[in-house]
């Protein structure tokens, strides 16, 4: 039986004007922005649509990205298309939470606003991230372990693309060793800190205090956690996994492979950019992939 997954990208794909056409076209999408603005206590529409520097600052990027994604999600669902399963990369996991029904949308917006602030405030000086291209996973993990200082895997994106994170000098040393070990390229990322590194564990702990205030519901749609790369079996696990996620590796490739193993043959990327669609082509070319980023993309849903 055919299964459809909704997948949501993380920060880095944001741009001024994202989801503006959805906002202008559908009242249900405007309602999402209004809810996010109330929950976050800031004008999210202005943040997303008007020229500003804040959109690329983590504490603002996260609420902007999530609002754009959930507005697009509402338009997809309005077309009668629904997910059998959901997943998201890093911040995108909160889009999957929304699909699952395990939390109220207003609570998700409040959490993500806090998450962005906590991560921004926890960023230590001297942190960095680098994408390692064209090298096997075991070699990258081994080099990280052997390198002096704090460096570890941040993202298992797809075959041939893994991101490392940690102290700037340690990341640079590891990148040099990985290049010598056969990596095609090691590309420093323009980020404001060593995300998904144990160096951000404090932000996860602060998020935990906010999660204690949130009521959880039974899941209507299953979703996969970044920390495990597997399904969350019950609602009681959700809070602990979200706390760990801030400072743990994102097992994106493993999540996708698990969904395919479970019979998912159609993946719909909802949100700015096409990063996850690009990863999908490297993970498995035998599944159907489409991305929803603009209103005209909704026409693709007729192919389902």
In spatial order, strands of the major sheet run 2-1-9-10
The proportion of strand residues reads 15-25%
Q: Summarize the amount of helix as a percent range.
A: 40-55%
**CATH superfamily caption of the largest domain:** Malonyl-Coenzyme A Acyl Carrier Protein, domain 2
* DSSP strand count: 10
CATH topology of the largest domain, by name, is Malonyl-Coenzyme A Acyl Carrier Protein, domain 2
What oligomerization state is this entry in?
single chain
Radius of gyration: 18 Å
Describe the structure.
- This protein is an alpha/beta fold and 304 residues long.
- It folds into two domains: 3-122 and 198-303, Malonyl-Coenzyme A Acyl Carrier Protein, domain 2; 132-188, Alpha-Beta Plaits, CATH 3.30.70.250.
- It has twelve helices and ten strands.
- The strands form three sheets. It has a four-stranded parallel sheet with strand order 2-1-9-10. Strands 4-5-3-6 form a four-stranded antiparallel sheet.
- β9 (264-270), α12 and β10 form a beta-alpha-beta unit.
- α9 runs antiparallel to α10 (238-245).
């Amino acid at each position: 039986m055919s299964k459809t997954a909704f997948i949501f990208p993380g920060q880095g794909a944001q741009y001024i004007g994202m989801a503006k056409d959805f906002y202008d076209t559908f009242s249900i999408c405007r309602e999402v922005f209004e809810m996010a603005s109330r929950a976050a206590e800031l004008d999210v529409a202005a943040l997303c649509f008007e020229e500003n520097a804040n959109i690329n600052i983590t504490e603002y990027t996260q609420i902007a990205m999530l609002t754009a994604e959930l507005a697009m999600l509402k338009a997809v669902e309005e077309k009668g298309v629904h997910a059998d399963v959901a997943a998201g990369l890093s911040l995108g996991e909160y889009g999957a939470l929304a699909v699952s029904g395990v939390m109220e949308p207003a609570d998700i917006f409040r959490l993500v606003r806090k998450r962005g602030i906590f991560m921004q405030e926890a960023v230590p000086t001297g942190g960095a991230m680098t994408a390692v291209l064209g090298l096997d996973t075991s070699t990258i993990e081994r080099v990280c372990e052997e390198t002096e200082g704090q460096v570890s895997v941040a993202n298992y994106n797809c075959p041939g693309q893994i991101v490392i994170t940690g102290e700037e000098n340690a990341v640079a040393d590891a990148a040099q060793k990985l290049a010598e070990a056969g990596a095609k390229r090691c590309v420093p990322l323009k980020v404001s800190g060593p995300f998904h590194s144990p160096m951000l564990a404090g932000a996860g702990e602060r998020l935990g205090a906010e999660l204690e205030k949130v009521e959880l519901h039974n899941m209507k749609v299953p979703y996969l956690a970044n920390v495990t790369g597997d399904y969350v079996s019950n609602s009681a696990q959700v809070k602990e996994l979200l706390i760990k996620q801030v400072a743990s590796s994102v097992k994106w490739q493993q999540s996708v492979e698990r969904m395919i193993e479970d019979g998912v043959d159609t993946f719909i990327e909802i949100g700015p950019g096409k990063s996850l669609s690009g990863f999908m082509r490297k993970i498995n070319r035998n599944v159907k992939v489409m991305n929803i980023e603009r209103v005209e993309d909704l026409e693709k849903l007729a192919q389902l």
